[in-house]
From TrEMBL:
Enzyme Commission identifier(s): 2.3.1.191
Major enzyme class: transferase
UniProt-listed GO biological process terms: lipid A biosynthetic process
Gene3D superfamilies membership: Hexapeptide repeat proteins, MurE/MurF, N-terminal domain
Function: Catalyzes the N-acylation of UDP-3-O-acylglucosamine using 3-hydroxyacyl-ACP as the acyl donor. Is involved in the biosynthesis of lipid A, a phosphorylated glycolipid that anchors the lipopolysaccharide to the outer membrane of the cell.
Record-annotated UDP-3-O-[3-hydroxymyristoyl] glucosamine N-acyltransferase non-repeat region domain positions: 18-86
Primary gene name: lpxD
Name recorded for this polypeptide: UDP-3-O-acylglucosamine N-acyltransferase
NCBIfam families: lipid_A_lpxD, PRK00892.1
InterPro entries attached to this UniProt entry: Hexapep (IPR001451), LpxD (IPR007691), Trimer_LpxA-like_sf (IPR011004), UDP_GlcNAc_AcTrfase_non-rep (IPR020573)
Length: 316
């Protein structure tokens, strides 16, 4: 889409080259043929180094852009980005690509549905009522149990196991809100990447990224009924127990263990080898590795045990 068309959609003016734009991306990752946006002061520091052709931005920040980056000035950049995201969303179904490819010795149930351009590796087992979307890639020796849904463009590695009714690549919970309180969907145009030797329980949902990828790294174990938000990254060999919830852009280091019903707020980083007892509420980043935590508000596990003992004595 030409930049002039984007400006017209967003009802804003621009001066400069009418470049062909192929997508939307973050300030850090945007290339010379992509548009970005800034709506949070947290990301203002990335403005001066962005390579985006243009940035959707408020008037007071426009002067901080590089000289070769075109400002698209709007009153509500986040709302404008949500409007634009729909135009770069891939089709839900696309019958035009090539037939799916299924590797040697893979068993696919006749009741499963494999979309055009999907790729399934060797020695896989795909059971009844599984749906594999367009351009999804499944590695070798992977087992997918009944009624699993893998949305388009998602990638699953070798030697993985995904149990019944799990959904990989559904839309993240993303929307912009205007001054009237109305909500506008932000189309989630990224994907999910699951690396090798990952096991995922039943009825778990892993959301696709807004841009880029939600990543589940090698050797992760995920229990039933876990929710992983968009753009999360789960470090190698981490363990997430039943009913864990991760808000968008949570980043877990290697070998993090989260007990049942524990949860993170969004945009947090968790140090490697951190352990969280059941129902822990994590509201800020954890920087020191190898510690064990409990409770809400979150505290060291030993401190939490002492607190429980004192409370028990108080009510005797």
């Amino acid at each position: 889409m030409k930049l002039s068309k984007i400006a017209s959609i967003l009802e804003c003016n621009f001066e400069g080259s009418d470049t062909e734009i192929i997508g939307i991306n973050t300030l850090k990752d945007a290339k010379e043929d992509e548009v970005s946006f800034v709506s949070n002061s947290k990301y203002v520091k990335d403005l001066e180094h962005t390579k985006a052709a243009a940035v959707i931005i408020s008037e007071n920040l426009a002067s901080q852009l590089p000289a070769d980056c075109i400002p698209l000035v709007t009153k509500n950049p986040y709302w404008s980005m949500a409007i634009l995201s729909k135009y770069f969303a891939p089709p839900i179904e696309d019958d035009t690509p090539s037939q799916p490819k299924i590797g040697k010795n893979s068993k696919v149930s006749p009741k499963a549905e494999i979309a055009n351009s999907a790729v399934i590796g060797e020695n896989c087992t795909i059971l009844a009522h599984v749906y594999i979307g367009a351009q999804a890639v499944i590695g070798d020796n992977t087992v997918i149990y009944p009624s699993v849904t893998v949305y388009r463009d998602c990638e699953i590695g070798n030697n993985c196991m995904i149990h019944a009714n799990t959904v990989i690549g559904s839309d993240g919970f993303g929307f912009a809100t205007n001054e009237k309180g109305e909500h506008k969907k932000i189309y989630q145009n990224g994907n999910v990447v699951i690396e090798d030797d990952v096991e995922i329980g039943s009825n778990t949902s892993i959301d696709r990224a807004v841009f880029g990828s939600t990543v589940i790294k090698k050797g992760v174990r995920i229990d039933n009924l876990v929710q992983i938000g968009h753009n999360c990254e789960i470090g190698e060999y981490s363990v997430l127990v039943s009913q864990v919830g991760l808000a968008g852009s949570s980043k877990l280091g290697r070998n993090v263990v989260m007990g049942g019903q524990s949860a993170t707020a969004g945009h947090l980083e968790i140090a490697p080898f951190s352990t969280f007892a059941a129902r822990s509420g994590i509201t800020s980043s954890i920087k020191e590795p190898g510690k064990t935590y409990a409770g809400f508000p979150l505290m060291g596990h030993r401190q939490w045990l002492k607190l429980q003992a004192k409370l028990a004595r108080l009510i005797k």
